[in-house]
Amino acid sequence: MHRTGVRARRFVELVSAVSVLFVVGCAGGPAQTTLQSGVGVESVARGESRADRASTVQVAAAPAVSSNVAVLVANKTAPPAAEKEPAGEPAEDPFYDPFARSDEPAGGEEYDPWEPVNTKIFEFNRQVDRWVLKPAAQGYNAVVPNPVQIGISNVFYNIRFPSRLINNLAQGKLSGAGTEVGRFLLNSTFGLAGLVDVAKYMDITTPEEDTGQTLGYYGVKPGPYLVVPFLPPFTVRDFFGYLGDIALNPINWMVFPLIEVNGVPSLVAHYNRTTSTIAQSGMRVGEILNDRSLNLEKFQGVEEATLDLYTAVKNAYIQKRRNQIRE
What we know:
This protein is mostly helical. 56% of the residues lie in helices and 1% in strands. Strands 1-2 form a two-stranded antiparallel sheet.
């Protein structure tokens, strides 16, 4: 009888101990540190007009080269205090890049060995924007209604469909590829050749993929940060990706050929380079001007609110690209 009572008491103690361990284990999972950037990184892209992403406008001298970069810089707020991590559970690094150089400093500091040259080119781009592009965009904005500007931006975005499709397929993102096909068909027909983003109103969206992201997906490291005259910021990897996207754009080899492919017909004959050059230059200037006009106020806010614009643009760009590759 006494032995039975001892066994019963030990059983109750064992059950109690297991219950306590279970409760502690459930409550002690790793906390996650969240980075706040004011707009949730990609809230402007895709949903609000191509306008808001307009300056993926790559360009010409706009100091905050893409609208996403501009918003990240303008609205950057301090991250909330992270919850205390349980012992042995490291916090998730919001800046972690699986393709970063092994000798890069942690915590979002960028690899920028060419900074002395980059800053000079950045300032050159900024002055071109200040004295040439911005005044032209202000005049354009006074003449062309905003809905028309958004429509033009939508058309340029629709034209670049092949690059997005191929890069989705290259990364094995079949769902994204299917969505891109659906968007292209809807916008090219019911959207009047892409003038209206019908797919957006039907909530048919997918993250935009480009060749730079595909290179990152396959383990190509970003390399140094790079600033080029009249172009957006890059890493070396993204610069080669940018050239790849140009090659994947059918306009460049089937309409106004920059690239000559034997046996592939083009709207303008290959030998007529003058016509192709004028058409390509006109389209490029038109896209840049249109996108800069759509972002006049946003860029103005960034310039006024940021002391070290070069560093702010660099950090925002790198962060955005890391997030895109991790999607």
